[in-house]
Amino acid sequence: MKAIVYSAAGDSSVLTLVDRDVAAPGPGEVRVRVLASGVNPTDWKARAGGVPFPEVVPNQDGAGVVDAVGDGVTQPRVGDRVWVYLAAHGRPTGTAQEFAVLPADRVVPLPESIGFDVAASLGVPAMTAHRALTVHEFGPSRLAPDALNGRMVLVQGGAGAVGHAAIQLAVWAGATVIATVSSDAKAELARAAGAHHIVRYPDDAEADRIREIAPDGVDHIVEVSPAQNAALDVEVIANHGSVAYYANNNGDEFTVPVIPSFAKNVRWQGVLVYTVGSQAHQAAAEDITAALRDGALPVGESAGLPLTWFPLEDTAAAHDAVENGTTGKVLIRVADETA
């Protein structure tokens, strides 16, 4: 089979296309014939930062068809269409290869009507968004239709992959969603994703514009840039609101206005999908799949998430595209669905 591998940390030039034997799944594992692989910022950052195994296949997310199962595996079954998450977390077997072996609990059956482009776009972004929307002190721990009825959600950076998923999941769960964006083009994407209100930045009156929409404050904030937005977040948040921050855009440290923050009982919640634990992973996988069944997570420019495709042999270019901030989702076409 064809696979992309790297054996040393560095820029995308360390990625190499090789031929490898197809591995057999062990107990509790499944083998997936990968059709599409999703690229996230953590994929290129992991490649640049270190090599925990002698050889690593990159990329955490993907989609395909179960090809074989190991001992003890009853679900999923051979032939099932699936989406996968955290394929390379703690393992050297990511999705930038034609066949990937991974734990059965990281392989999720895909509703029949859902395309592999949608499936490969889930994983890290959708699970991060799910967690960000379920950490409120008095909010739901699971998402479903009506779970967020009556709640105001602010998605900072609504045109990113996590922002896009947060808008879609929050709307599916019944929330009113405000998205912030930096351009007219990104405003159109956030609106296509389902955001009810759009606020442009930079704008000295940004807090006023948000408070006009949410005079009682916003309940949940999905935050991509706490270093830039912490003071604004405290200004517009409701009493007992939560700020779930999942990235370090525009700075590695942030400061918070202390008195306004504790006066509103604000919960600052870090979110890293790799370390939230299996219970949170399982909850997210189940709720995301339910949203898929309801048609709530479409992708493509018309749905607010433009897709940029690369062939497997151009995985290095795909990593570079993500590192350089390509808007939307970068996917790798590993194999033809009919092959």
From TrEMBL:
Keywords: NADP
Domain Enoyl reductase (ER): 10-332
Keyword NADP among record annotations: yes
Keyword Metal-binding found: no
Signal peptide as annotated in the record: none
Protein name (Swiss-Prot/TrEMBL): NADPH:quinone reductase
Protein species of origin: Arthrobacter citreus
